[in-house]
Amino acid sequence: MQQFLTTALSGLTQGMIFAAFALALVLIWRSTRIVNFAQAPMAMITVYIALVIIDAGYSYWLGFAAALLSGLLLGAVVERVAVRPVEDKPHINAVILTLGLFIVIHALAAVIFGSRYRSFPAPFGLSGFKVGDMNIALTGFGVFSILAVLAVMLLLVLLFRFTNVGLMMRASAFNQEVARLLGVRVTRMLTQGWALAAMVGSLSGLLIAGGNLVHPSYMDSVVVFGFVAAVLGGLDSPIGAVVGGLILGVSLSFVSGYIGSEVVALAALVILMVVLLVRPGGLFSHAPARRV
Amino acid sequence: MASTSLLTRKQQITDRKGEQMTTWSRRVASITSVLMAGAMLAACGAGGRPDEGEGSSADVVGVTEDTVKIGAHFPLTGVAAPGYSEIPSGHKAYYDYVNANGGVHGRKIEFIVRDDAYDPTKTSQVTDELVLSDEIFAMVGGLGTPTHSAVVDFLNGEQVPDLFVSSGSLQWGDDVESKPHTFGWQPDYETEGKIVGQWISQNMPNARVGLFLQDDDFGEDGEKGVRQYLDDQVVATERYTSGNTDVAPQIAALQGANVDIVLGFNTPSYTALTQLTAQKLNFDTKWFYSNVGSDPELVGSLLARFSEGAVKDGSSLLDGVLTTEYIPGVDTPDDPWVKLWQQVWDEHGGGAELTNYRVYGLSQAYTFVQALQAAGPNPTREGIVEAIEQAGAEFDGPALAPFRYSGDSHMGISGLRVSELKDGKADALTPVLVTDIGDAPITEDNSGAGNDRPPEDGIPDAEG
Amino acid sequence: MTTFAQRLWSSTLARHLLLAGLGLVAVALVLESTSAFRNGQFAVMAYMGIAAGGLTVLTGLNGQLSLGHGAFMAIGAYTTALLLSDRDGAPPLLVALLVATVVTLVIGAGVGVAAARLHGPYIAGATLALAIAVPGIARYFQDTLGGEQGLTVVVPDIPGWFADTAYFITANDVSTSKYVAYVGWISLIVTYVLLANLSRSRVGRTWRAVRDNDVAAEIAGINLGRARVLAFVVSTACAGLAGAVLALAVRLAAPSGFMLTLSLALLSAVVLGGLGSLTGALIGAALLTFLPQVVTGVGLDAGLSDLQAAELAPLVYGLTTILVVILAPAGIVGTARIAWRRRRS
After folding, report:
1. pTM of the model
2. Cα of B388 to nearest chain A Cα, Å
3. All domains of chain B, ordered by start, with CATH?
4. Which residues in chain C touch residue B350, judged by CB atoms under 8 angstroms apart?
5. CATH architecture of C2-258
6. The pLDDT value given to residue C29
7. Count of CB atoms within 10 A of residue A269's CB?
């Protein structure tokens, strides 16, 4: 019973981390129709910036804010410099571009910050709660992570559904020409989309890093699972991203604990294929799946 | 340049025939240009390094009048790079130190490191490069079990001495007939498992034992050793895949099995992760970590950062943790060997901090210098292998127990001692215990290897 | 009409065969005139080229993105390793290569059927998951697949006729690594001839039609699903063969050799060379094989530490990918083609 509960709870926290990453992917997908594979290393760089600030003796929260801010900037810069030239090209060009960015940022981080493990502090306790004899495998920081992800999800839903900016972002992503005719400043929308997404990405990086070890590749496994979570949810829906993350996190936790950690990736593949065969557009796709 | 103009001229002709048309002339042109580009790349790559100093030993690959060229594959990039990439810097520092003091038999040691990113495919490519293009005399310290497995047959086929593999797998030393040129160095994982297993069966005979294993030969061989003594005490076995950093499901399973002690055969980062996870799960148990994973300095410094949370101090979190030792590490700065390493590192390390990974590299390099000395003033590839087989068991050095080198065994250090961490330092619980693979008994070491002191000048003196 | 079409067809085939013969001669010249180390590198180039050739057909001609071709190479490599586990009782090399190709093809068909229902990022997600799942399978079934250590591959003895022919022509004895390089390049030439013919055939036109406009293609009577699955199957068969050659060249099939980086490297090789072009795929494979070593060497000569020089290779490689995508999205071959056309007009 204890093991079951612990496995479920740790899957929940893990799932929320996947969800945070998936939210960033959804945001970029909705605003530019690009899957950003460089999301993880971009976030990793900003987490290192936070680490430098915290190591210099400043508070955790200052580092936290700096990471989010630098994420925002980095997202905008990457969009302006690298992504803009391929925005009107076939989808695959953007994918390859972000893969190239992935490699470059990775190598840069290894050269600048060194290829070694470093610990990243957390602002809240790292011990689990105890209720009577039961251990509740949730730490203060775990609760913070869950709340933060839910808050971001809510904000994104509000942004896309109820604000003008969200509507304009969706419009620019969906059809640039029409959006432009309607008076939307498409290029600005695209930059905003990337900036916001990179900030959410940084948040996911901070949540993974908190009370954990960081090194230039520390987010690599999240690239795949976060992306799978986003695809499970339907890539278009913030709620889908969170649900996808949770499904994935909890089921992988059980697979890892009761079958073996080697087959975790295989389980992710099976879950993804089953979901996609039933719903080719993901769980929360609004539009009917594209014909064919 | 010639190839590009050829390509374009041909295309001029063919493009008239339409866009989709793939004519043979274009293909010939492109294939020729590719091949020429390849040949050009080949010409300007590392292939053309001239051999210097044709002397008396000019016919020994990698050895000239005044240099000996050796090399190794290490993960310098990718997920295995943190930690492991520091080992070759220890090697380099020690060779620089020896070179600054006149080298070995007047020859300077040139050490080439090639990155394999812990990918056997790349290991095979860079080993080809080291052996066939750089023309090294010997491979020294190549790291990793899956990676080195990919090249061990090639090295033996080419009769390249394959010395002191940085891995505790049994296969480097237990089959001299099929791998006559390969030597292990560190105590194999089975030996370590046996010694720990016996200690626990004697000192905690009623403990319920859980195993936490990396899912490769490290965990496998360790488990084999442990089970020789503890088979009926082991109640849970959990494996983790390197790179999968969420170990909560595994720790929860160990917690669920109500174990009294967990034996971890894992890397240092997983020591930190298991400690953090145990804290999250309120899992209060005794821990043993294999020598590979204990590194109190590194793990302590990693855990110390979390003191802002609930833990007071990183090294005290490791208090009471059991581990093993086979060479002195940075937690004992007063050990004469560590003093030597510190001196060498200060002179040639380039300013970075001395770590246990670097100490490992320095210690390995020390053994290689001994082997090279023992091979005599005119070293040959067969000569150095013979010299290690004959004299290797007597090599002095930082190792607490002697090497097992002989004509029948190429296994490395024969044993270690069990110790307990306290304030980031290891307190010995046993004398140095030695054994061998299989059902060889565990005995106290009486060779006195643990009392070796480094020579005055810090350079071994093993004449062949 | 019929005779004209036949003549055209036969001349295409004849052209490709003639070219293949010339290619073989060129390969022999290069392999005989370069060192054993270069022979090994050319073997690497051969298997990367075979896999990239298959991927460029899938992505360039049919428009499907696969981030998981490394997984199919793993299947080919493991099949080969299981067949060639010891010297006695192993099937002839040709049989091993064919079986590896067919096994991968069958598994590829299964994945292809599933992938054909998906589009864009959904295929990317599924193939990405595949790329990391397959090494896990090899770890899980430790007894048959060797776990983390993998399976060692015994390269079969060089057949007498091959050694004799080679000796007759070149007056050199063939080393194992040179033999593997020959096997790799002959496989590559055969693969490329088949792919070139296929892409110029009706099937190839169908693939392009599906890529350019699937709705129009369907109206024109093309079965989209079948076209997509077929492209996927052809492409995975190439990856399987490439994996088999890799297993011979590396003499080992281990999970850590087939991590995500392999799949991504293949994809960028295809893009660097120029999507849809076999020549481009070959150039991309050459870059992947030779560039890292050259870059690392330049870095070391410039006084960088081993560690920095090692990171320089991915850095340059990633930057090249980015620059090509931004400045020359048609890849090296496509850009050269465009530049020449512009200069002419």
Report:
1. 0.85
2. 34
3. 67-187+332-413 (3.40.50.2300), 189-325 (3.40.50.2300)
4. 305
5. Orthogonal Bundle (1.10)
6. 85
7. 28
